[in-house]
Amino acid sequence: MSSPDLPARHTPLHEVHQALGARLTDFAGWRMPLKYSSELAEHQAVRTSAGLFDLSHMGEIRVRGPQAGALLDHALVGKLSAISPGRAKYSLICDENGGILDDLVTYRLAEDEFLVIANASNVAVVLAALTERAAGFEATVTDETEQTALIAVQGPASSSIIEALLGTDDDRAALSGLRYYGCRPARVAGLDVLLARTGYTGEDGFELYVTADDAVKLWQALETGVQAAGGRPAGLACRDTLRLEAGMPLYGNELSIDTDPYAAGLGRVVQLGKDFVGQDALALAAQDQPARVLTGLTGEGRRAARAGNVVLNSAGTPVGVITSGALSPTLGRPIALAYVDREEAGEGTALHVDVRGTLLPFAVTPFPFYRRAR
Amino acid sequence: MSNPSDRLYTPEHEWVLLTPGSELPDEPVRVGLTTFALDALGDVVYVDLPEAGTHVTAGDACGEVESTKSVSDLYSPATGVVAEVNQAIIDDPALIAADPYGEGWLFTVRPESTAKLLTADEYEPLTA
């Protein structure tokens, strides 16, 4: 976390945001756009056309060397050496006790080169852990957050927006073959980028990594395309409602050093059949059912449950705690994620949430709450 | 952003349609939220208002305004009985921000007394 006496860092797009009239907020030590106009309109734009996000606060850590894959296999819970160049994988980095230090996406750029994307609030922790765990491996760990801008285009129109900006026939031919969680170097608007078909909104979309020097040019080209498609720049406020509808966990809400991957419903990303930091603790955790599991809830009416609200069973006994909640802009009803006692977490179970003194009915619902049409 | 001078304000960013310097009227008066409050809240998605007939107390919380991210208490600018709630904004909370000093009013109250209220000029510095 940032220290309060340090001035907030600006992304390379700071002046662009100011010119767009963004409402800015401090987030993980960065001054970031919360929204440009209405967060509901921005949310809607991502669901129906496209939203343009500055995510330059995310951490980019490059891992390079003959044993880069082996290092990541040791450092993360997944087997990163098993993915092919041009592919990405969602994984977790845990401590010795199996607690989650961060959730991250790792791109394999070449046989001996990976790009690890850490949450803004966890860059220092991830960097320190990777550096420490690199001892004995023939691999280097470099923080490139400062030199790198990350811009995301998310929404059903994003593929056509990107296609119009691709510089070569090769790039255009490759775009349709670029699968979800695929990545490739490309020329977009005449600029060299790493083009990745990834995102955090539940929509088709792209994340473009570019040098900080080229960020403004890339943003402007993308913004023209996004606006022409009926989309708009979008801030962190709608990013949170979008990811919640898509049932994607947020570090600090659903994930923390005190949660293990099994309770968080992420046991599938843990590959116990290899040596990695946290393996012993997670092997033990895998033998027991977690007491509380991450659970989806939907309510009636329009009043949302919020993080920290207590979940009660039909007998009025506390059985869980909300980690994220909002009125879903797409569904028009309250949705929430909560850690709930396993025996109360069956689909359809009727529960209540204490929303500031009022008990509101919620029902256990599998997430994602929203799934895009394909 | 400028706030109309034909009404009074609470330090918590509600307005009440009381003429500055005049005696309390016999008729119910409208209560709403200022543009400053709405701008800080973000898009309002839900409002919880006192029902008609409820006795509210000046300076006390009498409801809630919920935006996509946060929840704020709503404070009554006056003591009295609530006469009417604005059904239009219950049905479509976006109307509050669309016309905060007009059709976006929240409820009416028949005022018996008020909290310490501010004129538009006195309120303005609180929105800086």
TrEMBL record, chain A:
The protein's annotated catalytic reaction(s) are: N(6)-[(R)-S(8)-aminomethyldihydrolipoyl]-L-lysyl-[protein] + (6S)-5,6,7,8-tetrahydrofolate = N(6)-[(R)-dihydrolipoyl]-L-lysyl-[protein] + (6R)-5,10-methylene-5,6,7,8-tetrahydrofolate + NH4(+)
Q: What class of enzyme is it?
A: transferase
Keywords for this protein? Aminotransferase, Transferase
Q: Any keyword Hydrolase?
A: no
Instruction: Provide the GO MF annotations for this entry.
Output: aminomethyltransferase activity
Q: Name one Pfam family in it.
A: GCV_T
Subunit-level organization? The glycine cleavage system is composed of four proteins: P, T, L and H.
Instruction: Please report which protein family the annotation says this sequence is part of.
Output: Belongs to the GcvT family.
For this entry, the protein name equals Aminomethyltransferase
Name its species.
Answer: Kineosporia corallincola
According to the entry, what is the taxonomic lineage of the organism?
Answer: Bacteria, Bacillati, Actinomycetota, Actinomycetes, Kineosporiales
Gene symbol here is gcvT
UniProtKB/TrEMBL annotation, chain B:
Which free-text remark accompanies the cofactor?
Binds 1 lipoyl cofactor covalently.
Residue list for modification N6-lipoyllysine: 69
**Any single Pfam family the record assigns to this protein:** GCV_H
Which UniProt keywords are present, listed alphabetically? Lipoyl
Write down the InterPro entries for this protein, in alphabetical order.
2-oxoA_DH_lipoyl-BS, Biotin_lipoyl, GCV_H, GCV_H/Fam206, GCV_H_sub, Single_hybrid_motif
The cofactors required by this protein are: (R)-lipoate
Q: Which residues cross the membrane?
A: none
- Does the record's keyword annotation contain Iron? no
**PROSITE patterns registered for this protein in UniProt:** BIOTINYL_LIPOYL (PS50968), LIPOYL (PS00189)
Where does the Lipoyl-binding domain lie?
A: 28-110
Q: Would you say which domain of life the source belongs to?
A: Bacteria
Q: Note whether Cytoplasm occurs among the keywords.
A: no
Q: Which HAMAP family match?
A: GcvH
Q: How does it assemble?
A: The glycine cleavage system is composed of four proteins: P, T, L and H.
Regarding protein family, the annotation reads: Belongs to the GcvH family.
Q: Explain the purpose of this protein.
A: The glycine cleavage system catalyzes the degradation of glycine. The H protein shuttles the methylamine group of glycine from the P protein to the T protein.
The name on file for this protein is: Glycine cleavage system H protein
Q: Which organism is it from?
A: Kineosporia corallincola
